[in-house]
Amino acid sequence: MDVGKPVEARIRIKPVYPVLTHSGAYEGPCRVGKKEDLEPAAEMARFRQAFDEFCGDVRSRIGPDGEVLEPVMLQWADDFVVPAAELEKLAPEIHEADVVLVGASGLQQPPAVAIAEKYGKPIVMIGQVATSDITAYLRARGMEGYCFLDYADLNHFLSLLRVRKALRQTRLLVAMKGNLLTSGVVSGIYDLEALKKRYGVDSVLVNSDDIVQAMRELSAEKVEEAEELTRRLLAGSEESSMSADELLPSVEFYLATKQMLERYEANAFSIPCFEICATQVMEQERVGFCLTHTLLKDEGIPSACEGDINVLMAMAVLMYLSRRSAHMGNVSVIDRAENIIGVHHDVPGLKMKGFDKADLPYAIVNFTEGGWGGTIRYDISRDIGAPVTIARFNPDATRLLVASGEVTGCEGYTKVGCSLRYEMRVADADEFYELHQDFGHHFGLVFGDHADDLREVGRLAGFEVVTV
User: Fold this and answer.
1) Hey, which of 124, 236, 302, 325 has its CA 20 to 30 A from 443?
2) What are the DSSP E strand ranges found in 222-358?
3) At residue 304, does pLDDT exceed 70?
C-alpha cells in the first residue's frame, strides 16, 4: 500500500466567475453605457470573453502549491437572487476543492456569500473594495474569506494553507512499550484525541514489540532490499566507522517500520527510547532507532525520538512548510553572552536543504561502544551563518515556540553516543531559556527563517505562535 505523504499536499482550487446579467438595456445609478452595449446578448458576449481571460489567468498564474479544478461561470440576474441551479453547477467538484477562487467580475458579493454558505469552503479573491466586503461578512459569521492584491500574495497564502491541509492528512504511528506513550518525555502531548479534534491529526497506537517482530520476520526480498540499501549508504558516506554487517540491523528496523506505517496507513512515526532500551532487546538485535528517523524524514515522513509527540508535531509543521527534512534534539544554552544555543541529537536529515535537492555529505557512526546502532551525521559547520528555525509545541498543543537564528557551529560529529550538537545564535538566549520552560526540551530544526510564515500558519491552523 502506498501511504500518502502530507508534505506533498496541494491546495485544490475551484475557480468561479460570477456574472450579473441584466433583463434589458437600461441605465441607472449603478449602470451606464450605450444602449447597444447594454443589450443582454452584447453583455453576455463580454462576460464570456472575460471568463475566458479569467480562466487563462488562473491556469497560468497559480503556483505549484495549487491545483486548478474546472472553472465555472455562475450567472445570476437583476432580481438579485442567486439561483440554486447555478450553485449546483459547482457540485461535481466542489467537495474536492479546498478553496473557491471568486473572480472579480463586478458585483460578486452575493454569489461569493452564497457559495460559502452552501458549501462551507473558504473564499479567496484577488482585488480590492468588494473583496473586503465579502471577507468582512464571512469572518463575522465564522466563515473563511481572504483577499489578496495579486497572484504572488495568493500563491504565498496557498503555500501556508497547504500546511494546514497537510496536518489534516497526518496519521501518527505511535509505538509504545506497555501502556506508556513515553516516560522519557514527561512534557509530552498525551491527549491524542485533542490533536484530532483541533488539527485533524489522527493516530494509531502499536506495541513496539510488533515492530521488532516485523523486523525479525522480514521477507527474503526485504532482507535483500536492506542489504542493498546498506551498501548504498556506506558507499555514499564520506567516512564510516561501521561495517555492512553492523549497519544492516538498523536498516532492517527502518524497513520494518515502513511496513508498519503502510499496514496502519500512517505517515508519521514516534517510538520511545528509554523504555525499550531497558528491555535490552535492542542490544540483542544490535539495532538503533536513529537511522530510521533520519531515513523516514528524508522521505517526507516526520519521525521523532523518545515518543515525543510535541516535537513530532513541530517537525511536521516545519517540514510541510519548508519542504525540507528536519533535525531534532535537546536544546541547551551554550553561551549566554553570545546568545548561542545547542540542538543535540543524532538524527539530522540528508534532505535538510530540500527534498528536491541532492543528499548532503554525511558520515556513518555507530551509536554504541559495542559498534552497533547506525547513525547518520551531517557537519552543519559547513553552513556557518545559514539561517535556521527551531520549534516545539507545548504540552496541550495550543502554542508553538519558535526561534530563528543562524548556524554557528557543530560538535560531536563523529563521536560515539548521542553526541551530535548543532549550535545556533538566537536573538536572546536568556529569553529563549525562560520561554522554553513552558514547552519542553526537544525542538525540531530546519534550514531557513520561517518565523513569519509560522505565525501565519498558526493563525490558519488554530495555534498561537510565540517567537524569540
Assistant:
1) 236
2) 239-240, 268-270, 303-304, 327-335, 340-344
3) yes
Contacts within 8 Å (CB) and 24+ apart, 432-435: 432/331, 432/333, 432/341, 432/403, 432/468, 433/333, 435/401, 435/466, 435/468
In a 3-state reduction of DSSP, which class is residue 232? Answer: helix
Closest CA to 347 of 261, 433, 273, 277: 273
Which positions ≥6 away from 138 have C-beta within 8 Å?
A: 113, 116, 123, 144, 145
**pLDDT tens across 243-264, in order?**
999 999 999 999 999 999 999 9
Question: β-strands 327-335, 399-411: how paired?
Answer: unpaired
Cell of 159: 503555500
- The answer to whether residues 255 and 221 touch, using CB atoms and an 8 Å cutoff, is no
> pTM for this structure?
0.95
Range 6-164 has CATH code 3.30.70:
no
pLDDT at 148: 98
Element (H, E) at 12: strand 11-21
Percent of the chain scoring above 90 in pLDDT = 93
DSSP 8-state symbol, 320: H
pLDDT in the model for residue 75: 96
Helix (H, G, I), strand (E, B) or coil at 463: coil
Check residue 1 and give its pLDDT: 43
pLDDT digits (tens, 9 = 90+) for 171-201: 999 999 876 677 779 999 989 999 999 999 9
- Reduced to 3 states (helix: H, G, I; strand: E, B; else coil), residue 363 is strand
Residue 282: what residue type? Answer: M
φ/ψ of residue 337, rounded to 5: -65, -35
Rg of the chain (C-alpha set): 26
Q: How far apart are CA 313 and CA 74, in angstroms?
A: 41
Taking the C-alpha atoms of residue 209 and residue 200, their distance in angstroms, rounded to an integer, is 28
Least Cα distance to 254 among 227, 274, 281 occurs for: 227
- Beta-bridge partner residues of 329: 443
Report d(CA 302, CA 266) in Å as an integer. Answer: 11
Write down the domain spans for the chain.
Answer: 6-164, 170-467
Pairing of strands 442-447, 387-393: antiparallel
Domain 170-467 classification at class level = alpha beta
> Cell 560531536 maps to which residue?
412
**Quick one: pLDDT at residue 96?**
96
Cell of 29: 445609478
C-alpha cell recorded at residue 162:
497547504
- Mean pLDDT score, 371-386: 97
